[in-house]
Write a structure and sequence with these properties.
The protein is an alpha/beta fold. It contains ten helices and eleven strands. It folds into two domains: 9-71, no CATH class; 75-258, Vaccinia Virus protein VP39 (Rossmann fold, 3-Layer(aba) Sandwich). The protein has helices at 15-20, 30-41, 54-59, 66-71, 75-89, 109-117, 130-140, 154-157, 196-206, 224-231; strands at residues 3-4, 7-11, 97-102, 121-127, 147-151, 167-173, 181-182, 186-187, 212-219, 236-241, 251-258. The longest helix has 15 residues, at 75-89.
């Protein structure tokens, strides 16, 4: 196990330790959250959520597992995603209100920021992992946006939601990348868990008569053939990459519509 420079008693708090090591399923202390930010990004306040710094959200009772701290979309990125989704949603014809769905909710931070930016919207999230679900449900209960969080597989729970007619549907798609990300070749969208085209197809099949806006989280470098395969499932698409990290380590979204064009 790699040790932190100048501190032989403490392991390096990086992606490997929190995502694959002994802290993966451990509720982190504030010190551990800040060590991860400092060791991995030279910023103890890196894991900002729900509009708060780690000391602020920790004082409010928000708690994260090690793997959630790594996998969550922090405020600076979630805010940008929410703004771009809102801009695209404003172009949807005859959309008076919006249902925002997150099939892989995790911390619900992206869903929270989308709801902040998209007017007349309400959020529904799905989280399979019971421990993550229980923590997140408590975390979002005191926020200024209402999020209905469901425990279970989104694919089996979608039909339980009778969405009101006249509501356009926004879907934020960020499945686990697993081995789909190769730093040299990029993110292969066909190898996420599950493949993203499968997710898009399920939502389109579930609500064939609705206007759907997809916002699919991607990496700065995407495997070209997988990107073209995904675009073929959409009526239109637009790729946005955010300049928040060092070159080559940035995230972005692919915005795309089904059932409408812009």
């Amino acid at each position: 196990m790699e040790l932190r420079p100048g501190s032989p008693q403490q392991p390096l708090h990086d992606r490997a330790l929190l995502l694959h090591g002994p802290k993966r399923n451990k509720v982190l202390t504030l010190d551990e959250v800040q060590r991860y930010g400092s060791d991995s990004f030279s910023d103890p306040d890196y894991v900002q959520l729900y509009g708060m710094t780690p000391p602020e959200w920790y004082a409010r009772g928000v708690r994260l597992l090690g793997r959630t701290a790594v996998e969550c979309t922090r405020d600076s990125l979630a805010d940008r995603i929410g703004r771009d989704i809102a801009e695209a949603a404003s172009l949807m014809p005859t959309a008076a209100s919006f249902i925002v769905l997150d099939p892989f909710a995790g911390s619900c931070n992206t869903l929270y920021w989308v709801l902040r930016h998209v007017p007349r919207s309400r959020g529904i999230g799905f989280e399979m992992d019971l421990e993550v679900f229980e923590l997140t449900r408590k975390n979002v209960s005191g926020l200024d946006r209402t999020i209905e969080l469901n425990n279970g597989d989104y694919a089996s729970l979608l039909m339980r939601h009778d969405l009101p007619p006249g509501h356009a549907i926004v879907v934020f798609v960020a499945p686990p990348w697993g081995t789909a990300l190769d730093e040299d070749k990029g993110l292969d969208l066909r190898r996420t868990e599950p493949p993203i085209t499968q997710i898009v197809a399920l939502f389109a099949k579930t609500w064939p008569d609705r206007k759907l806006l997809f916002a699919i989280q991607v990496y700065e470098k995407v495997e070209p053939n997988s990107l073209e395969d995904l675009k073929a499932h959409l009526d239109w698409s637009r790729l946005k990459i955010y300049d928040l990290n060092s070159a080559g380590r940035n995230h972005g979204i692919l915005l795309g519509g089904k059932g409408w064009t812009c």
